[in-house]
Amino acid sequence: MPMSIRAAVLEGARQPFHIENLILDAPRAGEVRVRLAACGVCHSDWHVATGDTRQPFPVVCGHEGAGVIDSVGEGVTALKPGDHVILNWAPACDECFYCQHGQPNLCATFTDPLWEGTMLDGTTRLHRADGSPVYAYCGLAAFAEYTVVPHQACIPVRPDISLVTASLVGCAVATGVGAAWYTADLKPGLSVVVIGCGGVGLNTIQGAAARGAAPIIAVDLNPAKLALAQQFGATHGVLSGGDALAQIRALTGGRGADVTFEAVGTSALQEMAFAAARPGGTVILEGLSPMGTATNLPGAVITRQEKTIKGSYYGSVDARRDFPLFIEEAAAGRLKLDELVSRTWKLDEINDAYAEMLTGEVARGVIVF
Ligand SMILES: [Zn+2]
Ligand SMILES: [Zn+2]
User: Fold this and answer.
1) What separation in Å is there between the alpha carbon of 360 and the centre of ligand 1?
2) Which terminus of the chain faces fewer neighbouring Cβ atoms within 10 Å, N or C?
């Protein structure tokens, strides 16, 4: 049966979120309905609000969610009502070229429809009373009391952990820790620079620390973020701008770092990450840049200095393997997850939550239902 739910809706770019009652259809074949417990306040949703991410409107954002399965559609056997799950914004079909080649984060089946804001069949489960569609950012629409998603977008986890903490695994932790462990495959003693100490950057730092990388040099505009970065394992903090590159070189034998990460998604910082890598070093681009932007990474230098540029999408993770792994690593004290949650908010406070995210004082705010 369709149900009425409260959700945070964006009517168009450069407008605030507003809270509205929407109709949520029952899950169809292969889909499940999730009662959200929590959803993190991530910068990617803000790119929709500013118009930097192309997205049909009206839309419900929210892609860093966790909750409890409420009902399952026809043919779903892997999940049942009551299961605790983390939402996965890059679900894998198991059948396409990428899934068959160990890159489920690049699955070709789901990417296009989910980024159009619909289910695989091109329709939405959310609509208004007049029947007009309301789109789901990343196919998740987790800034809502309930959501309907493909069952592959739900990763079951043990029920004894906080769903508030677990929600962050679905974006910031996967993207950041995954980039350090999988995309970069960091080893003990490698020198690392992480540019941008938001949710993704802090997780890259703690992933690098867990792998024994050293030094780990955090770079940010905001001194408060650098202090936070040290709590997550950074050995040094460098304020961006000014002589940041000179400071990084001074900390890395005059060469630059073995591996540099750009965790924001802006051209200027990507160019800085390139300059901060040593000859023979690797540059990991993990921050999502607005589509259509370009970055000047000079081929003349890439060749002569043998630098490697690697993209990292969702931390190169296999969500079904890695979400439960990250939870176990946290339980064993090797990753800090609870510490990432600096503040919780109610759904009605979502505009305030984004205002605070933009001031850069917090690790992660989380909407709790
Ligand atoms: Zn995110
Ligand atoms: Zn696939």
Assistant:
1) 15
2) N
Q: From ligand 1's centre to the CA of 46, what distance in Å?
A: 10
> Does one domain contain both 123 and 29?
yes
- What is the β-pairing status of strands 192-195 and 216-220? parallel
| 10/151 same-domain check | yes
Ligand nearest to the CA of 265: 1
Are both 13 and 144 inside the same structural domain? Answer: yes
For residue 319, the CA-to-ligand 2 centroid distance in Å is: 13
| Cβ neighbours of residue 314 closer than 8 Å, sequence gap 6 or more | 89, 90, 105, 174, 175, 178
For position 108, what pLDDT does the model report? 94
Q: How far is the CA of 64 from the centre of ligand 1 (A)?
A: 6
Here the CATH number for the domain that contains residue 241 is 3.40.50.720
| Same domain as 160, residue 64 | yes
CA of 173 to the centre of ligand 2 (A): 22
Cα of 87 to ligand 2 centre, how many Å? 17
CB 26 within 8 A of CB 331: no
Tell whether 291 and 145 lie within a shared domain.
no
Q: 220 and 153 share a domain?
A: no
Kindly give the distance from the C-alpha atom of residue 135 to the centroid of ligand 2, in angstroms, as a whole number.
Answer: 22
Q: What is the pLDDT of residue 361?
A: 72
DSSP annotation of 5: E
Residue 250 CB contacts under 8 Å (≥ 6 apart), including other chains: none
Split at pLDDT 50, 70, 90, the class of 363 is confident
**pLDDT band with cut points at 50, 70 and 90 for residue 52:** confident
> In whole angstroms, what is the distance from residue 8 CA to residue 14 CA?
15
- Summarize pLDDT for 183-203 with one digit per residue, the tens: 999 999 999 999 999 999 999
* 296 plus 342 within the same structural domain: no
Give the number of whichever ligand sits closest to the CA of residue 104.
2
Q: State the total domains in the chain.
A: 2
